[in-house]
Specification:
The complex is a heterodimer of chains A (220) and B (321). By secondary structure, chain A is an alpha/beta fold. In chain A, 36% of the residues lie in helices and 16% in strands. In chain B, a hairpin with a 2-residue loop joins β1 (124-125) and β2 (128-129). The chains are: A alpha/beta (220), B mainly alpha (321).
Chain lengths: 220, 321
């Protein structure tokens, strides 16, 4: 999994939007699997890359099942009723994300972590090979954060996905992260393996803060 | 749907409809037309009114459902976008300049189109409709035009403007068969379009980001849906005035019974809207017979407690599940 790091306004979300073709670059080109994004329509892009937004606000009490089935849209845009394969795929996705037990419940009744899982299930239904997650764990407690990343790692391995994450929280998620990309002012400032880049000194230097190793001390 | 929910749903939807239908075919109705006068009363007054109530009720209900999803706002109502106020202003101009009230629909239609055009123009930015601007503009145009009409009403007080004012509160007796047919054709075309777009509209109701990430051409879909809904609203309002609450409540009633998926809740909204308005109209005519209460007042006064009752009964069941 690749982590995208940077100060607020550095351009992390903008980068994701460019990757999805939602924004046009002033110069240069964007490619998804060697296809230029500007020549693809919204449906083609949706079949290649799935995006999970930062703070999804739900207004209507859709059930989990209804929401996950909506992930089938890019693969069945002109259909009206759900086909058998759509229902099967949705059931599989809910099972993989441990949300099957919520299938008939309204999304409004679920907790933040549970909603995130539902959104991931929906994204899997798109059958996209790229998953872009924007602050997926911002409102979750540590256990939910780790649980979510464990789920993502499992899915990544099973489905051979490319997962990119924007997150301000990563201290206890280091084991799941492979690469780090650091952004500053819309440019890539540095990139490298997570083990090396997520060291306190490196992070402190990048964000211009002081770092103290205070968490673990020997003796008194 | 559980058996109990299905039962209450059927009771709610079909019993009132059944009663209305019985009223139509019962005493002095379709099967009991004895005299020439009875026939006249039925075919020239009661039947058109009944059909119009259904047509307008269904139109307002589906446009209400579409606007609630488009604007992601459960309080959205078809009159919110200002088109209805435009229709009202058109009618008022018609009255003030002394045209006969049979021209009301024409002026109303023109007024509706004028406001639609204005609101559309002001809300377009770089090929996309700003939903936020749309809603804001609609609310402001509504306030402005309604205040203007009330102001002029107090200045010009006369029989003509009284007719216009009365129409504004909702009047189902002023349309002929040709106009009703026109409404049903519009409802058919636009309704069919809405159903085809229902899956996309479900996605749009999750937010622009979510819809886009799932492959919906957000801008194009929003524009098409908005124009279609505004046209249908204009058509309905130009024949019957501003009838409130039907467009707001029917989608909620539908959602309470069949869920938020528009593929199911749209047709149910339409049915609920028809039943609600036809029922309200029957009460409006009969409660203080022979004088009539404007139907818009009945929908507000009776519709709201009715809705609260349904809400409380369904809410209890949902929390348990």
């Amino acid at each position: 999994m690749t982590l995208f790091l940077g100060e607020n306004g550095a351009g992390k979300t903008t980068l994701f939007k460019l990757a999805l073709g939602w924004l046009r670059p002033r110069s240069g080109k964007t490619f998804l699997f060697e296809n230029p994004v500007e020549r693809m329509n919204a449906l083609e892009i949706a079949r290649k890359a799935a995006y999970l937004e930062q703070d999804a606000a739900y207004i209507f009490p859709f059930t989990v099942e209804e929401l996950v089935l909506m992930g089938r849209f890019p693969n069945a845009p002109h259909g009206f009723w759900n086909r058998k394969e759509d229902l099967e795929r949705a059931a599989w996705a809910m099972e993989a994300t441990d949300t099957l037990r919520f299938a008939k419940r309204s999304i409004l009744q679920l907790s933040g972590g549970e909603r995130r899982r539902v959104e991931i299930a929906r994204a899997i239904c798109q059958q996209a090979k790229i998953l872009l997650l924007d602050e997926p764990v911002s409102n979750l407690d540590i256990r939910q954060q780790i649980g979510l990343f464990e789920l993502l790692t499992r899915l990544q391995q099973r489905e051979k996905l490319t997962v990119a994450v924007i997150s301000h929280q990563w201290e206890w998620l280091k084991p799941f992260l492979g690469r780090v990309v650091m952004l500053r002012s819309g440019k890539m400032a540095a990139t490298g393996p997570a083990g090396e880049f997520l060291r306190p000194e490196r992070i402190a230097e990048f964000f211009s803060v002081a770092s103290h190793s205070t968490y673990f001390k020997k003796g008194t | 749907m559980s058996k109990r929910a299905l039962r209450s749903f059927l009771i709610l939807m079909f019993i009132p409809a059944g009663l209305l239908f019985l009223n139509l075919v019962g005493p002095r109705g379709l099967l009991d037309l004895a005299s020439e006068q009875d026939r006249f009363l039925f075919f020239y007054l009661r039947l058109p009114r009944f059909l119009l109530a259904w047509g307008v009720g269904m139109s307002l209900a589906v446009t209400g459902a579409v606007f609630q999803s488009l604007f992601r706002n459960p309080l959205a109502d078809p009159h919110l976008i200002g088109v209805s106020a435009g229709a009202g202003a058109g009618v008022w101009i018609c009255a003030v300049f002394g045209f006969s009230f049979s021209f009301f629909p024409v002026f109303a239609g023109l007024g509706a189109l004028a406001v639609l055009f204005l609101v559309f123009l002001l809300s377009m930015r770089k090929g996309a409709l700003s939903m936020y601007t749309l809603l804001l503009l609609g609310v402001m145009i509504n306030s402005f035009l309604v205040s203007l009409m009330l102001f002029c009403q107090s200045l010009f007080r006369s029989d003509d403007t009284a007719a216009a004012f009365n129409w504004l509160l909702g009047n189902l007796s002023m349309a002929g068969y040709a106009q009703i047919l026109f409404l049903f054709i519009t409802l058919g075309i636009v309704g069919f379009f809405f159903m085809r777009q229902a899956p996309k509209l479900n996605l749009l109701s999750l937010g622009e980001s979510a819809a886009r990430s799932l492959g919906v051409s957000v801008e194009k879909t929003q524009i098409l849906l908005f124009i279609a809904a505004a046209i249908l609203t204009g058509a309905a309002v130009s024949l019957s005035g501003m009838i409130s609450f039907v467009g707001l409540m029917s989608p909620h009633v539908a959602r309470l019974f069949v869920g938020s998926d528009l593929r199911r809740s749209l047709p149910v909204s339409a049915w609920a809207g028809g039943v609600l308005l036809a029922g309200a109209d029957m009460l409006a005519r009969s409660l203080f017979y022979p004088s009539e209460i404007p139907v818009g007042i009945v929908t507000a006064l009776l519709g709201v407690p009715f809705f609260i009752v349904i809400l409380k009964r369904r809410e209890g069941k949902r929390v348990i599940s």
